[in-house]
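Thread amino acids onto this structure.
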């Protein structure tokens, strides 16, 4: 009898483990396929580089990955799990989920001209021609010392790929690890949320969206209790249930790696709190905002060309790519790629209150709105940007605000210092200190 019970328990454990593995395998292979595909076909990195660094953790490092350069796709396998990601010219890579690879590839994606066409002959910040002289008020030896420390690849500055400092509108420091260049596109992860903020702001300026109007989606029944606005989404106050845990089978890992329509998946979640009552960080709400944005266009082609025509081309971000899910909605929560200089241009747009060389790209009050604390965030969060009003970065001014990605990507804007700092890298928790970086850089401005 005891032996039968023991065998039953063992069988139950095996079945439970198999059931769980079946759930988690698409996350493992999906992460590997998507990030390797984008790393190779968008960022221009080698498979070996990505596998030895970006994919060299947890179970992800045990995946078997095949890069098909002819068809521009990546297939990743682990045990019986398999995932594929495909490349679309101008739109980056998409994980194949719920739609076939042919369905994803064969859509009529508009190919929009990238501007400016002659960046090398145009002065910074619109072009690549930087000034020979440096602005007054900066101690160059101290700045060089700060930059060297950030690039030292030792805690608290481990894992830096590249660093750029823009002071009084001029690039005063720009350095790269030896395997990267100024032409390398870097993954921004959650910095993409701030780009969604910008796209919503542009659409608001065009009079095509009201951020304070309740949203409506086809999956919601009439009289649905979720009276959620775009403003609620951008403040992380949607009230929808959401688990943002990483390293486990959570809402965010399922959304990014198992769902072809990420916004619809997020929309399926129940109401946990009334909208605008509780602050809770959620990548799902950003992708809902991307779907809400999509609904304001007459066609998908208009939606797909919108970031390039109305943002990237306007401010000289030639390299920028905002990737989509399999349904064709931008994954603004996580998947933006751009060069270091283009991220700096984005920071400058906000430093200049949404004005680019005389053209007001964003509504006049948009940056003020963006940097107003979200209810319940304790001064840490605005509208898809992180704030420093609570002193999270104690050695930086209170008016510091930033875009932030989970592997240590930052676009930091400090209006009181006329300063933008961009750092990209791959750093695990505790390996990189944003505060120490800013402390060292700010010393050169005192």
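Threaded sequence (446 positions):
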């Amino acid at each position: 009898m005891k032996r039968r019970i023991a065998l039953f328990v063992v069988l139950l454990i095996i079945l439970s483990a198999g059931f769980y593995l079946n759930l988690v395998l698409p996350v493992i292979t999906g992460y590997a396929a998507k990030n390797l595909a984008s790393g190779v076909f968008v960022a221009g990195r080698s498979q070996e580089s990505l596998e030895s660094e970006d994919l060299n953790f947890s179970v992800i490092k045990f995946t078997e990955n095949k890069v098909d350069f002819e068809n521009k796709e990546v297939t990743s396998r682990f045990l019986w799990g398999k995932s594929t990601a495909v490349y679309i010219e101008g739109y980056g890579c998409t994980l194949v989920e719920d739609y076939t690879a042919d369905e994803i590839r064969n859509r009529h994606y508009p190919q929009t001209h990238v501007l400016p066409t002659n960046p090398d002959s145009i002065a910074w910040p619109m072009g690549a021609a930087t000034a020979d002289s440096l602005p007054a008020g900066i101690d160059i030896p101290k700045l060089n010392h700060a930059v060297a420390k950030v690039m030292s690849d030792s805690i608290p500055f481990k894992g830096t790929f590249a660093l750029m400092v823009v002071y009084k509108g001029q690039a005063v420091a720009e350095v790269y690890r030896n395997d990267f260049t100024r032409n390398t596109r870097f993954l921004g992860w959650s910095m993409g949320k701030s780009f969604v903020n910008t796209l919503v702001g542009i659409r608001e300026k065009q009079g095509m969206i009201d951020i304070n109007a309740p949203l409506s989606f086809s999956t919601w029944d009439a009289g649905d209790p979720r009276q959620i606005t775009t403003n609620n989404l951008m403040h992380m106050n949607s009230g929808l249930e959401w688990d943002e845990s990483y390293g486990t089978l959570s809402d965010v890992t399922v959304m990014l790696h198992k769902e072809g329509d990420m916004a619809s998946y997020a929309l399926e979640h129940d109401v946990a709190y009334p909208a605008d009552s509780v602050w809770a960080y959620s990548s799902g709400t950003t992708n809902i905002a991307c779907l809400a944005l999509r609904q304001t266009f007459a066609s998908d082609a208009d939606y797909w060309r919108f970031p390039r025509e109305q943002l990237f081309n306007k401010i000289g971000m030639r390299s920028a790519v905002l990737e989509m899910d399999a349904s064709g909605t931008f994954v603004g929560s996580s998947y933006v790629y751009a060069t270091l200089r283009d991220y700096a241009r984005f920071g400058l747009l906000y430093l200049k209150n949404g004005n680019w060389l005389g053209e007001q790209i964003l509504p006049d009050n948009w940056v003020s709105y963006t940097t107003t604390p979200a209810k319940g965030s304790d001064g840490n969060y605005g509208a898809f940007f992180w704030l420093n009003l609570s002193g999270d970065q104690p050695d930086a001014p209170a008016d510091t605000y930033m875009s932030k990605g989970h592997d240590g990507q930052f676009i930091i804007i400090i209006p009181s210092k006329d300063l933008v700092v961009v750092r990209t890298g791959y750093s695990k928790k505790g390996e990189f200190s944003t505060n120490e970086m800013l402390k060292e850089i700010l010393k050169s401005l005192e």
